[in-house]
Hints:
The chain is α/β, with parallel strands linked by helices. It has helices spanning 3-15, 19-24, 37-46, 65-73, 84-93, 128-141, 158-170, 174-182, 188-197, and strands at 55-59, 76-80, 98-100, 114-120, 142-153, 200-206, 211-218. The N and C termini lie far apart (33 Å).
Amino acid sequence: MNISDFRFNALFDDWADDYDATVALETGEYKDVFKNYNEILNETVKHVSKFKGAKVIDIGSGTGNLTNAASNIGYNVIGVEPNSKMLNIAKEKYPFINFISGTFLSLPIEDNSLDAVISSYAFHHLTDDEKDTSAKILKSKLKKDGVIVIADTMYDSEKTKSDLILEAKENGYTNLLHDLNTEFYSTHDILTKIFEKHGFHVSYQQMNKFLWILTAKLK
């Protein structure tokens, strides 16, 4: 198990049972992180912009909510999740969807076979170096006109990062502050450089004060 897989499992073993309740909360420390949650999922799958039946994978699929949103559009979607507890919950919730074990860095998918890769609230668990490695792996799995759509916490600038950390501190949001200081949330500049290095054109859409949708299309 590589270090990113370990981080995934350590976090979600403790969170799996309460994940769906957490993302639905409209109060508390994380209310702004998950604000517009269902809209975010629906907007993410819209950015795929592929034909009905297109082959899509959702990495870090968790309890399967984004995977299901893609299925509802008519995509041939597979959920990919490293944590066994999350995987079992997703299979129980959505028995008509195929969920398999895997990660951004260990992906049991045939090369040049995917129309799109989607992900929500997961990519930030990778360091910037791991994100770079993942971008290379994901490109190898995509068809020549493939697209990657990632909905996650990220920053449009270092100033925004500092402002949000300060705001969490002033509000006494201890857990959120810890996350903002320790998780691997990247800036647009870093993410753009990573994906452009591997031949993608990158665009962003903001969905709440923390979350942006990154769309990376192969040039």
